[in-house]
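Subject: for your reference before the review

Hello V.,

The reviewers asked for a structural picture of the protein, and I figured it would be easier to keep everything in one thread rather than splitting it across files. Below is the amino acid sequence we used in the manuscript, unchanged from the supplementary table.
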Amino acid sequence: MNGPNVLERSLSLRLATFVADTRDDALPADVVDKAKRHVLDTLGAALAGAVATETRAALDIARAGGGHGASSAWGTATTLGARDAAFVNGVAAHAFELDDSGGCDHSGAVVLPAAFAALACTTRPVSGREFLLAVVLGYDVGRRVLEACGGYSAHNGRGWHSTMTCGVFGAAATAARLLGLDAQRTAAAIGHAGSFSGGLWNFIHDASQTKRMHTGRAAEGGLLAALLAERGVTGPSQLFADVWGGFFNAFAPETSEPDALLAGLGDAWKIMRCSIKPHASCRSTHAAVDATLALAGDARGTPERVQSVRVRLSAFVDGMCGGRDVSRLASAQMSLPYAIASVLVHGDASLGAYLDARRHDPRIAEVMARIALDVDPSMSDLDEPEVTLTLTNGDTRAAQVQVPLGDPHNPVSDAALLDKYRQLAGIAIDAAQADALADAVLRIDALPDVRGLERLLAGDADGRALLR
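And here is what came back from the structure prediction:
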């Protein structure tokens, strides 16, 4: 193979220089406000996730180890080494499918655990503004790598799970910034992250819980990449170059768009395109949930009035969310038919609607049998599904929601965000502590040192019942 050209050779360093040298006050006010919402949302999801079976398993493994720094396992009274904390908290943040989307894809669950773990590895005060910038940079880098791979459907359609393959870069950027690495060492961290990248969609075929591990591994890998770079361990300088072993050649050989890695750098902040999830299911089901909520009207909770449901959808969404296995929480949350049935039987697609007793309500199986999925080859991968609902009285209603609730163009309200956060955080911590944490996060840009936030993340999830 030929050697890299000048532009390709400089991609890693140019991206790293942006991460290392961007001023703490560079973020516009709307980016700061949105970042705070996503921090709060992710912490709420992670605190609830502390009672998930996957988190408990990861915590049991981590308790047996040690490591650099000391950081808390959120929602518990356990202190872990920083790497283990990044892993466990990353698993917790994604355990119930309620963390944000639209970044790497699940950026919050990757970036925030790495950020807090990095705080445990530094002895200097870290202001709220610096912390928010590091978080936003992590969202930015993770999404940029995904876009440079050709985008979500191209990359994930090949079988990669972008939350892990691209998220590790976001975690590395955030950790490098909080550790105070210069551009050269940040580039080394990004280089290490490329070799720590991985994650397959194969979990989709057998309801395995591996998907929940991906956020934890990306957070842990990004932190480790930055810690190695901090100690002078070099990473490949030609990571994104057109050479043998280059990241795009390996992960996106037919779809890569390297220019997207740097396009609009410092102007187009990628966190602004991220969504906050109102429903406890895969983001690709949300438009169908919203459509069903709108169509069902007073038929919600009375499934006997529903004769049939037809869903017109793309082959991509059908392949990702067309399954009907509800034996486990993980598989039910990836099922579009279950999400629709849950709205018709239980009235919503909240976390409670996905728990074991609700999944095995006999009415769910009856309604799912009346739901037909029609793949439309004319639809592009990420087109939203169209739902047609027919009632037993012959009334037929159809809707296609183009911008689901939670999208940045159709955001959840501040009140709804706080309500979601309080419900989730309350699973692991008491109401007063949850309110104190929310208050601190919403004024985080005024805090002189954010390292004290961790005390508000400790809870008693170990003593509470598992959610499955």
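For the response letter, the relevant points are probably these. Confidence is low (pLDDT under 50) at residues 1-9. The first strand starts at residue 71 and ends at 72.

Happy to draft the paragraph if you're swamped.

O.
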